[in-house]
Amino acid sequence: MNSLPRFRFTRTFLPFALAAGLPLAALAAPAPLKVGASFQEINNPYFVTMKGALEEATASIGATLLVTDARHDVSKQLSDIEDMLQKGIDILVINPTDSVGVQSAVKMAHDKGVVVVAVDAQAEGPLDAFVGSKNFDAGVQACQYLGEKLGGKGDVGILDGIAVVPILERVRGCKEALGKFPGIKIVSIQNGKQERDQALTVTENMLQAQPNLKGLFSVNDNGSLGALAAIEASGLDVKLVSVDGAPDAIKEIQKPDSKFIATSAQYPRDQVRLALGIALARKWGAQVPKAVPVDILLVDRDKAKTFAW
Fold first, then answer.
1. Where is the signal peptide, in residue numbers (predicted)?
2. Is the pLDDT of residue 6 over 70?
3. What are the tens digits of pLDDT across the range 61-74?
4. Torsion of the alpha carbons at 80, 86, 92 and 96, rounded to the nearest 10
5. Which of 93, 205, 223, 295 might form a disulfide with 199, Cβ 3.0–4.6 angstroms?
6. DSSP three-state, residue 237
């Protein structure tokens, strides 16, 4: 069993200690635990929310937190993680910008005895655990809803994103759901890179090329807001669905006659808190699940009135 890290402790994590059979006297040791968090980006409300929740959680146990922003650059993420390892982190929470590309960093951390938990997006390599939304279900629910609102017929487009497992799973789920409607045809799949400005331009081009488009699925809310601006400017009647549950998206969904009709909402606070809790349990020597799926919720106009991250 790994030795207990020396850091201040609160009631929140007392059950983990008892379950691991640890002596309570060890909890009084003063040295703080070091947690490193490497995010694929932090200019997105979803990851801002996740970062804030992690800051609160680590502060509550007296741990030191180091946070880096890869800015969707896998080379930067590898360098960031290497730097955190040199600073002596005990736990690495990784949100990869490239599921395969971060494998060497995951292995490096593992070889140094660092507990590694991926959050939101799966990472290749010797992970201790992965915590993430049921992304396939998110795609299914959003596109099932879209298909129903289109009356089971019409041309539909998909606004894709970066090649990480959650995005791939959302698109796969959407395709499966739409495939159950014989009258619906997917006529365009374009990469909006999950960024509002990029998605705006891509959607404008899609609408020009597909003037009969009736529905659009965006892999995330940040991109969907750019897509929404393009739809509104075009004057076309295109229904939009997405994934995330971001505050700005929820506001748009609530508006009367909005083209944005639903989003499969995630729970970023829950994901990162679970990731930290599992990492702590593993650090203390407990057996932990390799994967922890987190439910999503389809939020339409009615549910948007009360939903918030």
1. 1-28
2. no
3. 999 999 999 999 99
4. 20
5. 223
6. coil
